[in-house]
Design brief:
The complex is a heterodimer. By secondary structure, chain A is of the alpha+beta class. Helices cover 22% and strands 43% of the residues of chain A. Chain A has a six-stranded mixed β-sheet with strand order 2-1-6-5-4-3. The longest helix of chain B is centred in the C-terminal third of the chain and has 15 residues, at 405-419. The chains are: A alpha+beta, B alpha+beta. The A-B interface holds A 41, 43-44, 52-58, 63, 66-67, 69-71, 73-78, 116-118, 152-159 and B 98, 188-197, 216, 218-220, 222-224, 325, 327-330, 332, 341, 345-346, 348-350, 353-355, 357, 360-361, 363-365, 367-368, 371. Chain A: One of its GO terms (biological process) is 3-phenylpropionate catabolic process.
Chain lengths: 162, 433
Amino acid sequence: MVTIEERLRVEEFLFKEARLADESRYSEWEALAEDDMHYWVPAEAGQDPDDGRISILNDNRTRLATRIRQLNTGVRHAQVPPSRMCRIISNVEIETIADGEYFVRSNVILYEYRIQADKEMEVWPARVEHKLRMRDGEMKMFSKHILLLNSEGPVRGLSFII
Amino acid sequence: MLDNSRPSEGIRFEELILDDRVHSTLYTDSEVFEAEMDSIFRNGWVFICHDSEIPKAGDFVRRNVGRDPVFAVRGRDGEISVIVNRCAHRGNIICQEERGNAKAFVCQYHGWAYDTKGGLVDVPYPAGFKGDFSCHGLERLAKVDSYQGFVFASFNPTVPSLGDHLGRATELIDRAVEMSPVGRINLSGGWVRHQLNCNWKMLPENDTDGYHVNFVHPSFAQAIRSNYDEAVLQDEESLKSEAKDWGNGHTELNFSPSYSRPLEWFGCAEDRYPSYSKALREAYGQEKGDKILLDGPPHAVIFPNLFLGEMNIVRFEPVAPGVCLHIHTPMYLEGVDDDVNQRILRQSEGALGPTAFLLADDSVIAERTQLALAGKGGWLDLSRGAEREVTDDNGVVVGHLTDETSNRGFWRHYKQVMQGPDQSSPTAAAAAA
């Protein structure tokens, strides 16, 4: 059981992370990720990241840096202009993994206005699992797994930070 | 559909497809789409699966042929059947799981049971059943054949042989499987289903278009150093890669002439995977092994729905005139160390699918193209490089990487298929019977 204060710190992190992603502030979002970050969108329910099955997205820290570098070029057509987004976070449950480390489950509904292409509204409901770490007085993430409800597809283009 | 005419009868394809241009209604018109479902996806050969996906008796996978739901299943005799996924009684989906293993398929509506050949073997409350078991089996696709484990099928019992359809392009499939020292690939990595709101024909066209790379993928080029720097991102005079038309709608971007080092296509040096290089040379001999290591895998479309996407295998699936799926899996190799297949998997996730460094940009451009073709539309140009392409000794048309040789080849075959050699369509005839 975490303290009220710990819960506030965790929720504050989730909301900030969501806002930076919603606003496509790529480098500020990336600064929240630790060196051992795993950013993952599996393609099947119940998938193990190491079982040889393909994922929709499976970034270690190096590949995540490449992804952010590509978005920051300003010529990533799929995000020019960036999707306009708004994510609602709920059902936050927090477990302590170790001293200052937390496993956080939440439900997220992301609304995406695809302004760069067909100007449609896309909705991305997902169960999200974060692993967070308090380091030097700041909360950081070292894992974010996004379990899309429709992971088996079909899945539309997903070039923003989810 | 009780009209026994071909759906395409009213469409004048000869006026919509010229040597140097095609009309946009081919991407937007619902009658054209219906005609394609019939002439291309029911009457011709369509890629279904690879036999490594269903290695054991009873193994099955679900697929669509055009829009028709089917499943491929391996029988006890080892043969693969492709069966329409629709109960012969009241039309329920018979095979509900995407993949798995079954001894029999039992309909969850009224309990009719079928064997792995689609034969009806049991009905509940049999006293009331006055039909003939042999006449109430599931509909099977008339033709199933395979090449190097790639399974193709057709609804058309009089379709010319798969060998006729593949023609010279068997060489492309050979090149894909010969990336393995034992000549076997393995599609056990699962599929990602990426939806694009564009016409399905933009997928084979774009996947063998060598002209767009500088413009659609500048963010990739700026963010990542890759083998594509040499293969596709040079200036016009320096580019050594080629666009090829292999006939029958099969097309290729041949990057091999751009590579000067073994495994350059894999984005690494040869000493990164020494046992892989050694195994290839031992299996195929020094000369051919060297060539495989230098040339790399094919980047080629097998008409109409298979893309040999280097170390990926892709299926194209039409959904509606303005909606299609690009469905990919890593092309795992048999007879190699796990770290080679691990790299193939990571590269597959990087290049293809909704989040990919490459395809996410292709998909947004394709969706904008579809928007631009709305309404009355107009002509799309295909003339680039027609005067400088050459036909090689094998009859393959070869053009500069940036020329529309490949897409002209696609459309030449498409036109021939859609116009049809005769007016009798078995599908339409069956519907009218």
